[in-house]
């Protein structure tokens, strides 16, 4: 079986590298950035000139692109070469409605389709321990599970096409709200003379302990904003959640508070920094 991978960004590069390392068949590559392609070719991948060529040569086509419009564009390009022998896995984080629209077009020509967005950041992509939420029929899920296992250690099917993305957006929105709570209380504690180390230790003694603070306290203390997951990507995800809540007529004031912080971070030019840089927005540092 040949696998094709489109989109070699911060996450896609590491995910594709794991596939090459663990898969017996050929792995074809495409990205608009030739330097990124060359880097993965050096690991054993095979470069393609465009998405259509990659889809033609691959039995399984994986896409990991930034936004809804990019996923739409890729699948419009590859659609003419898809048939019942092909399986498509879009691991991008995009609007669920757009993903469902894409899935219907792909399935109409006989190919399989799954949305399979990931959680955690680049270190987990490098180690192959991502969490993966899948939206597909059960048969497709069982077919692609071994491939997803090259990249992730926690894989769960959430339901039909689009449901993987709904879960991803709910997950990231919860992370943003937890992060906002950490930012506010940590900033207040520091103003009152409590150190980051003492704050994190004290929180770990009670019900406020959380994965975000455990993992990010030292980075915040050291003012390390090196990007593992960008502020602009989380801003995008909160925008998707905002649209979902409006469509469902379900107000989410906590999400809106977190998004306002991200809106300000984007306005201040912090989009390319790690999403923990929202601490600077909240603290005023």
Task: Explain briefly what this protein structure is.
By secondary structure, the protein is an alpha/beta fold.
What would your notes on this structure say?
The strands form 2 sheets. This protein has a 6-stranded parallel beta sheet, with helices on both faces. A 3-stranded mixed beta sheet has the order 7-8-9. Helix content is 55%, strand content 13%. The radius of gyration is 20 Å and the shape is globular. With 285 residues, the chain is α/β, with parallel strands linked by helices.
Q: H/E order of the elements? A: EHEHEHEHEHEEHEHEHHHHHH
- How much is the average pLDDT? 97
Distance between the termini: 52 Å
Strand order of the main beta sheet, please?
3-2-1-4-5-6
Query: In this structure, how is the largest beta sheet organized?
Result: 6 strands, parallel
Report strand %: 5-15%
| Helical content band | 40-55%
Globally, the shape reads: globular
How many beta-strand elements?
9
Low-confidence stretches: none
How large is the radius of gyration?
Answer: 20 Å
Q: Structural class, please?
A: alpha/beta
With helices defined by DSSP (H or I, 4 residues minimum), what is the helix count?
13
